[in-house]
């Protein structure tokens, strides 16, 4: 055994021992840190969870939004596991350069897969490096690079991981030809294309070397490969917040423990407030301990799954690239939010794990063993507060270790209140991080514990408490939308005693009853149901707001009051099938009321209307913008009305996967040309109204609704079709802004609900006229919430 060989063995084994010891320590740190979180049960349906994990892991279903990246990442990921065997081989080669794994080392299929993965892995990592460089923030200098999804990511970590993989691939591509040459020079019979199908040609260039030279070269390259691999292990062990590396281990657990065992995205319903792992009973809230957290006020208030979420973040920025707040220059970046929470959690963890005696002495006195970051994190006054955010410095909204002079907050208040809860971040995340839940939990703490929320929400809450609707209007006005309809709209209690007499309960919703633009949709749906012979009834003044805005604003108490009242009413009247026109009502009644014992079959009006068209109970025969048989046009906008685009409401699309019905309805309308927006379906851009943003002014950046309206106008459509009254308000306001700016003439484009367009195209049986009464209600300004 040569001196070089001995040195290589000693250095490699010593490095390996150190790396494994440090890795074990870091794994223990992770387990201890995650245990600091609040309890939460995520262990149901283990078989289904395992199938979901295998499907997402092997199928890369969550990565598929970027196909080229998905393919390159899949090859790299598979290679990381399979080519671990080449690392084992490298250890053997330190002792014996001709070493091969027992049984499989010279098994042709094993060698074929190895060489295929090495070459494709090399190409894949070079592609990923190129993609990262192409999307580097420097490519968008006009806005400081924030349009890059990698803006704010930790660059040295990404570069280090990429170069590590590249180095390992190059080492393997050197070892295989050297092995071929050693086999050939040594007189073995294995130097053939059967064993070296993709590297034998390279091995021929080494065939002129002596055996001793080849053996020395193999030892050196094998040692380099080992040192590269275990240097990487040491680096990630010393950097537990290095998500770009640790996600290849933690992602398995994060996917396995995602909210829904069947793999559904963690959207739809919000999770109820839990204390000590148990759902809070609001009737017993006075029995809680004084220090019980309602929501999340400090990082240890998150559940263990939340802490796992933050640690798993790969910093890929897909969430950031899709966020409507970030793309309109607001301070909220889902990626930066998660990164800040991750860094703060891991910095604060050693202090939280310390003994009571140490903590009692105080962080300044406990100088033994605590890093400066830990001391800074402990000094932070609150998780969410005023950080002195400057719109010109987006990163200034995130201070995981507090302000430079100590204390302060981790996250600026503007960050959490900028969120529309549209779910784009959650839908895009390849490792199933639940950003929206984290944001709403922080809002709950600000609302319920600190009573700190945007001033506009004060009026909303008062109106909901007083009159059970956001506008604060009297319940007796809830049926004004039905005035002058040519048929009676039956009300439960007055006209209908038992819902068994009707097919559906029509949940009108607050906007559908009070907001003048939304009333047109309500009337259109009612007329279409009447035309189709569908029996329905409404609650009238028995309806209350579903509580969606209150809940997403963090006022869980108010939501519970409204929701429990509605559930009691619906259960009392025996409601089973409900049709709604509001995407927010749809999501709340369908997904959140079951948490309170309200289980119903809930349909969005576009789903029901599409079914009625398919069943030939409604037949569109007229162009929606023309004057069939002398009837008035759809509205003042258009005698042509030939091109339509559709905006996906977030709470209908991403949160509930309803994409096809409204599009199918639009595409069967005679004479209508359908144009899809660039950002649609899963990638649809929010209108800006969700998450109670409907009731708040946009103080920072540009308006989200203007951004979305501009995209819709870019399609050349003269009608923007929607399926939610919130979207209708926001896009109509965006259209008005475009008119004021002079980019569109008044009346050139209009915003209409899908139901309005269908009604205009359906011929009333026998009289030869399209029904247009739903559009007869004039546009008037929507009343602002009382303050």
- Provide the β-strand percentage band: 5-15%
Radius of gyration: 31 Å
Number of strands: 12
Q: Look at the helices and sheets and give the structural class.
A: mainly alpha
**Global morphology:** globular
Describe the model:
The protein is mainly alpha-helical and 787 residues long. It has 28 helices and twelve strands. It has helices spanning 3-35, 46-59, 67-82, 84-95, 108-134, 155-185, 200-203, 211-238, 243-256, 304-312, 318-322, 334-353, 356-361, 372-379, 413-417, 424-428, 435-448, 455-467, 510-514, 516-531, 548-552, 556-572, 583-592, 605-614, 660-667, 704-714, 725-741, 754-761, and strands spanning 274-275, 278-279, 382-385, 409-412, 504-507, 536-537, 577-580, 601-604, 643-646, 673-674, 719-722, 750-753. It starts with a helix and ends in a 26-residue tail after the last helix. Mean pLDDT is 90; it is low at 627-633, 636-640 and 764-787.
């Amino acid at each position: 055994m040569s001196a070089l060989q001995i040195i290589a063995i000693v250095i490699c084994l010593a490095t390996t021992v150190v790396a494994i010891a440090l890795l074990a320590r870091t794994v223990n740190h992770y387990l201890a840190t995650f245990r600091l979180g609040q309890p939460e049960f995520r262990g149901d349906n283990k078989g289904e969870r395992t199938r979901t994990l295998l499907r997402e892991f092997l199928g890369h279903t969550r990565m598929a939004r970027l196909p080229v990246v998905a393919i390159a990442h899949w090859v790299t990921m598979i290679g990381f596991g399979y080519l671990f065997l080449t690392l084992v081989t490298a250890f053997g080669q330190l002792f014996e350069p001709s070493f091969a794994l027992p049984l499989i080392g010279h098994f042709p299929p094993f060698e074929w897969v190895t060489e295929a993965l090495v070459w494709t892995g090399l190409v894949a990592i070079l592609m990923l490096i190129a993609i990262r460089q192409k999307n580097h923030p420097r490519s968008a200098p006009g806005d400081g690079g924030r349009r890059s999804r990698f803006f704010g990511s930790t660059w040295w970590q990404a570069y280090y991981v990429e170069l590590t993989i590249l180095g390992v691939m190059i080492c393997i591509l050197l070892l295989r030809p050297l092995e071929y040459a050693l086999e050939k020079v040594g007189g073995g019979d294995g130097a053939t294309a059967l064993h070296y199908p993709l590297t034998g040609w390279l091995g021929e260039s080494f065939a002129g070397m002596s055996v001793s030279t080849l053996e020395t070269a193999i030892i050196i390259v094998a040692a380099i490969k080992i040192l590269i691999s275990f240097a990487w292990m040491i680096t990630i062990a010393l950097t537990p917040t290095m998500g770009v590396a640790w996600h290849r281990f933690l992602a398995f657990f994060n996917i396995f423990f995602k909210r829904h065992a069947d793999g559904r995205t963690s959207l739809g319903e919000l999770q109820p407030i839990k204390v000590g792992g148990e759902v809070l009973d609001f009737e017993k809230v006075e029995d809680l301990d004084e220090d019980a957290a309602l929501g999340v006020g400090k990082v240890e208030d998150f559940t263990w799954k939340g802490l796992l979420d933050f640690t798993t973040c790969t910093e890929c920025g897909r969430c950031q690239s899709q966020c409507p707040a970030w793309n309109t220059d607001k301070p909220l970046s889902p990626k930066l939010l998660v990164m800040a929470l991750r860094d703060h959690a891991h910095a604060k963890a050693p202090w939280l794990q310390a003994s009571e005696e140490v903590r009692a002495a105080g962080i300044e006195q406990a100088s033994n063993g605590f890093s400066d970051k830990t001391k800074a994190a402990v000094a932070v006054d609150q998780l969410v507060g005023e950080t002195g955010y400057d719109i010109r410095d987006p990163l200034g909204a995130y201070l995981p270790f507090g302000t430079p002079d100590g204390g302060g907050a981790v996250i600026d208040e503007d960050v959490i209140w900028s969120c529309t809860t549209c779910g784009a971040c959650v839908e895009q995340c390849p490792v199933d991080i639940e950003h929206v839940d984290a944001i709403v939990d922080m809002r709950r703490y600000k609302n319920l514990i600190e009573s700190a929320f945007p001033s506009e929400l004060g009026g909303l809450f008062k109106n909901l408490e007083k009159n059970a609707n956001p506008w604060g209007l009297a319940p007796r006005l809830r049926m004004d939308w039905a005035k002058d309809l040519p048929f009676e709209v039956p009300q439960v209690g007055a006209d209908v005693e038992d819902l068994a007499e009707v097919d559906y309960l029509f949940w009108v919703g607050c906007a559908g009853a009070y907001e003048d633009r939304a009333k047109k949709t309500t009337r259109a749906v009612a007329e279409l149901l009447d035309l189709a012979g569908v029996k329905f009834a409404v609650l009238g003044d028995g309806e209350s707001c579903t509580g969606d805005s209150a809940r997403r604003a963090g006022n869980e108490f108010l939501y519970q009051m409204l929701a429990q009242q509605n559930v009691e009413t619906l259960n009392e009247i025996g409601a089973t099938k409900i049709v709604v026109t509001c995407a927010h009502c749809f999501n709340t009644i369908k997904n959140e009321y079951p948490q309170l014992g309200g289980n119903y079959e809930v349909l969005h009006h576009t789903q029901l209307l599409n079914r009625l068209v398919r069943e030939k109970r409604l037949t569109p025969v007229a162009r929606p913008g023309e004057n069939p048989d002398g009837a008035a046009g759809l509205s003042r906008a258009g005698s042509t009305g030939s091109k339509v685009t559709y905006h996906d409401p977030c709470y209908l699309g991403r949160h509930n996967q309803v994409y096809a019905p409204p599009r199918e309805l639009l595409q069967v309308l005679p004479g209508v040309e359908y144009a899809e927006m660039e950002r649609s379906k899963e990638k649809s851009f929010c209108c800006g109204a969700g998450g109670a943003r409907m009731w708040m002014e946009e103080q920072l950046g540009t308006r989200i609704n203007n951004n979305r309206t501009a995209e819709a106008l870019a399609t050349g459509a003269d009608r923007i079709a929607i399926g939610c009254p919130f979207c209708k308000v926001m896009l109509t306001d965006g259209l008005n802004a475009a008119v004021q700016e002079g980019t569109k003439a008044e009346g050139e484009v209009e915003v209409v609900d899908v139901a309005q367009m269908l009604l205009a195209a359906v011929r009333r049986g026998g009289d030869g006229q399209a029904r247009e009464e739903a559009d007869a209600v004039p546009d008037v300004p929507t009343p602002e919430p009382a303050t």
